[in-house]
Design a protein that fits this description.
This protein is α+β, with helices and mostly antiparallel strands. About 15% of the residues lie in helices and about 20% in strands. The chain contains 1 helix and 3 strands, in the order E-E-E-H. A 3-stranded antiparallel beta sheet has the order 2-1-3, covered by helices on one side. The longest helix has 12 residues. The model has no long low-confidence stretch (mean pLDDT about 85).
């Protein structure tokens, strides 16, 4: 049997970086937000969100859900869906 040579120890293993592709622009999880999204907060003092999702600050008290160019996360998507279900957006 022929003797096999051992690979050199300490030599770094080759690494291959995966190619990353942008998920595009849109309102789905993993995509980049095309615009800012805000939702007004009620005036009753409870701070609950009210009204539709708007893309410019509505004035008064408002919650910014996401900024333009930010990643849409599951939490952002939940807030947008909640606005749809509440009769907003």
């Amino acid at each position: 049997m022929a003797a096999r040579s051992k690979p050199e120890e300490g030599a770094p293993a080759a690494t291959v970086r995966p190619q990353e592709y942008s998920a595009g622009t849109g309102w789905e999880v993993g995509q980049t937000a095309p615009e800012d999204a805000f939702r007004a907060l009620d005036n009753a003092g409870t701070g609950g969100p009210t009204g539709p999702v708007v893309h410019k600050h509505p004035g008064g008290y408002a919650r910014q859900i996401v900024t333009k160019g930010a990643l849409i996360t599951a939490g952002v998507r939940r807030e947008l869906d909640a606005a749809d279900q509440d009769g907003g957006a």
